[in-house]
Amino acid sequence: MSLAGSPPLYFDHNATTPLLAEVLDAMQPYLTRHYGNPSSSHVYGRVAKAAVDLAREQVAALVGASAAEVVFTSGGTEATQLALRGSLPVPLGNSHVITTTVEHPATARTVAALAAEGVKVTRLGVDEAGQVHLDALTAALTPSTRWFTIIHAHNETGVLQPLAPLSAVTRRFGVKLHADASQSAGKVPLSMADDGFDLLTLAAHKLYGPKGVGALVVRSGVKLHPVQTGAGQERGLRAGTENVASIAGFGAACVAARRDLAESGARLLSLREQLITALRAGVPGLIIAGEASARLPNTVYALFPGVSGAALLEKTPGLAASTGSACHDGQETAAQVLLEMKIPAARAVGAVRLSLGRQTMPADVDAAAAQLIDAWRGSPSTGG
């Protein structure tokens, strides 16, 4: 399939983002002339290792960590696997862990696998605003609790969980806090000192870097064991020859994200509110999921009345958007997060996720809203 001609407006930045030009520039030397293995002691290897070391500093700076606390992985899923499995003892013993009912599959399915292996699991629900309550977390903690894992910014609703108050609870009980920041990094400020996380998942392709590379930020003093063994790269925590070009691109993407964070956040917030205003003017009864909570500045999870979100998007070929996360696409069932937020299933199936990005312009917002409104009005169930 080709994108020749007039490609659809891209409103799916929570699924993935395009490479920034400066990211591609940072990667190209390591795809061509600087092809050494970072583990080699000769000059080719030293050049490659220097690129990895620089990127480690750049990634760390985005989240207020030190370079020594960054472990590169093949992406966010592997980073989460390392955080969750690597934090548990071998054998597992009577380990207990806590998660939520609204996690990304990278976390939810890892936790389910651990449960099948004998780990005791507590899953905390969210309220109608999409947030976990501190008292629920406190009540769930036991002497055998090893960690609490939570998605910082929900990939569908954009709702942000309050990491600092949550970490205050886990720290008081000596429990590790792992946060999946794949969606939030580069969109909102993150700080190891202020937010208190012990383990943090990052994914480069969510912040204008390349696919296939991510990182786990591991607070100094937190002990992990590897889940992938081999030659001992990444301080023995992630074996395998480093993907130097992609790591260099990841670093460059983090530099851009840190540099532009405030300006980009304000611009995206303005566009988000413009989109919500336009949709509400044309769609009576529209619901914005998570609107009562702090959420990502680029995300609108709109529930259209009387229609299926998937059917609505089929009628807007000029718009590339999603009914939820890319990992759930194609399903007609209501998103679990909406059901957890007490939204009736009949309304929840009308969800469309619109996520804006660096290249989104005000005119694009107006055009996207117009397409969705026209499609909704023309749907049989709305009387069109």
Stretches where pLDDT falls below 50 for ≥5 residues? Answer: 325-330
CATH class of the largest domain: Alpha Beta
Which strands sit side by side, in order, in the main sheet? 2-8-7-6-5-3-4
Strand fraction equals 5-15%
Q: What CATH architecture of the largest domain do you see?
A: 3-Layer(aba) Sandwich
Q: Which class do the helix and strand fractions yield? A: alpha/beta
Named CATH topology of the largest domain: Aspartate Aminotransferase, domain 2
Q: Using only CA atoms, what is the Rg?
A: 21 Å
Describe the structure.
This protein has 384 residues and is an alpha/beta fold. It has two domains: 9-17 and 260-382, Aspartate Aminotransferase, domain 1; 21-256, Type I PLP-dependent aspartate aminotransferase-like (Major domain) (Aspartate Aminotransferase, domain 2, 3-Layer(aba) Sandwich), CATH 3.40.640.10. The chain is built from twelve helices and twelve strands. The protein has helices at 21-27, 43-62, 76-86, 105-116, 134-140, 163-172, 192-195, 244-282, 309-314, 336-340, 345-348, 362-377; strands at residues 9-10, 70-73, 96-100, 120-124, 145-151, 176-180, 199-203, 214-218, 287-288, 299-303, 319-320, 351-355. The strands form three sheets. The chain has a seven-stranded mixed β-sheet with strand order 2-8-7-6-5-3-4, with helices on both faces. Strands 9-10-12 form a three-stranded antiparallel β-sheet. It has a two-stranded parallel sheet with strand order 1-11. Helix 1 (21-27) runs antiparallel to helix 8, helix 2 runs parallel beside helix 8 and helix 8 packs across helix 12.
